[in-house]
């Protein structure tokens, strides 16, 4: 059964939003490096020091992707979209602290709520896909992003892949990561339970590629990995390329 996006957003309540900045950096070893490299990959794809309007989907929490991109490219502007009010509030606080609200349009809702004729130079979808249940929901958000990108525009996709149970060694290493940060055995189990709640990551890198191809994107280049997590850059295909 497909998990509606509203259900996925409901997991990110005020409690989870308040702890997100710390928890995410434990759950994903290399959290800041992933966001920094995402900014670098987009800049390399678009060309250095060129103005750009970037769609940031799932921006709630730390707004780290915007902070990283803005530091690298002062002429980029952002549209930050997230369906969770508490998570978007947390992101807005980080944007305010980094003097970035003037460069960011903050939108509470979904990509589909944005104007159909919106045209972005690039987009990011970081830490979102594995929270959406079923391929249909994953395809929907990717198609919605694709429809609002210029032809050839780059997209960063990052998140967990593999069915968690299929990789017991990685899952155990994930547990050790929490223990490394001082969590007790009971706390480790609680943290893993919360992370795994309702999660449905693509089951392989090939599955990620298939989702992207089905939504009108080209082959993706992986540029970051950390246990279950990977990050890729792909680009929107033109109509002529897509149906050639």
Automatic annotation (TrEMBL):
Pfam family, one: Methyltransf_12
Positions of the Methyltransferase type domain: 60-154
Matches recorded under InterPro entries: Methyltransf_12, SAM-dependent_MTases_sf
Listed CDD domains: AdoMet_MTases (cd02440)
SUPFAM superfamilies named in the record: S-adenosyl-L-methionine-dependent methyltransferases
Protein name stated in the entry: Methyltransferase type 12 domain-containing protein
């Amino acid at each position: 059964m497909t998990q509606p996006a509203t259900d996925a957003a409901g997991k990110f309540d005020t409690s989870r939003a308040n702890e997100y900045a710390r928890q995410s950096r434990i759950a994903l070893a290399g959290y800041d490096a992933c966001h920094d490299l995402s900014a670098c990959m987009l800049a390399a794809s678009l060309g250095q020091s060129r103005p750009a309007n970037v769609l940031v989907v799932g921006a709630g929490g730390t707004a780290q992707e915007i902070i990283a991109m803005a530091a690298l490219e002062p002429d980029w502007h952002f549209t930050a979209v997230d369906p969770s009010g508490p998570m978007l509030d947390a992101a807005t606080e980080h944007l305010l602290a980094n003097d970035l609200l003037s460069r960011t349009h903050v939108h509470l809702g979904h990509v589909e709520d944005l104007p159909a004729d919106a045209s972005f130079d690039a987009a990011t979808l970081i830490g979102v896909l594995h929270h959406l249940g079923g391929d249909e929901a994953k395809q929907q958000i990717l198609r919605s992003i694709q429809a609002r990108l210029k032809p050839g525009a780059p997209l960063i996709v990052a998140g967990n892949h593999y069915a968690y149970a299929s990789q017991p060694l990685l899952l155990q290493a994930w547990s050790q990561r929490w223990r490394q940060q001082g969590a007790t055995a009971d706390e480790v189990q609680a943290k893993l339970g919360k992370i795994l709640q309702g999660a449905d990551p693509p089951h392989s890198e090939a599955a990620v590629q298939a989702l992207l191809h089905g939504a009108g994107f080209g082959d993706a280049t992986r540029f970051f990995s950390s246990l279950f997590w990977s990050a890729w850059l792909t680009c929107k295909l033109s109509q002529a390329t897509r149906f050639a």
